[in-house]
Amino acid sequence: xxxxxxxxxxxxxxxxxxxxxxxxxxxxxxxxxxxxxxxxxxxxxxxxxxxxxxxxxxxxxxxxxxxxxxxxxxxxxxxxxxxxxxxxxxxxxxxxxxxxxxxxxxxxxxxxxxxxxxxx
Length: 120
Prior knowledge:
By secondary structure, the chain is an all-alpha fold. 48% of the residues lie in helices and 0% in strands. The chain has 4 helices and no strands. The chain is flat. It comes from Drosophila madeirensis. This is Coiled-coil-helix-coiled-coil-helix domain-containing protein 1. One of its GO terms (biological process) is mitochondrial translation.
């Protein structure tokens, strides 16, 4: 007589004994002293809401700009504020000032990690 597989599935699989599987260290269990800058190269979208409202207005008015002056002005103000913030952030990064917090870019983080290297 054959036992159906559903009876085994209800009980689940028994966990493997940890003593039967010894730990093998393949890579060293420590962090590197540097981080790559790949994550910082992502695209940041500025003024997406204002741009959407502007395009909706342009579509409704058959792309005649004189009917969407208010939306154009809001978008330009938003973009100007965004560029000012980006310029200030870039200026502080280029000065090399490392401020404590969780918003460090990869250059600041590498500079901070050089002060406290991981022992080999």
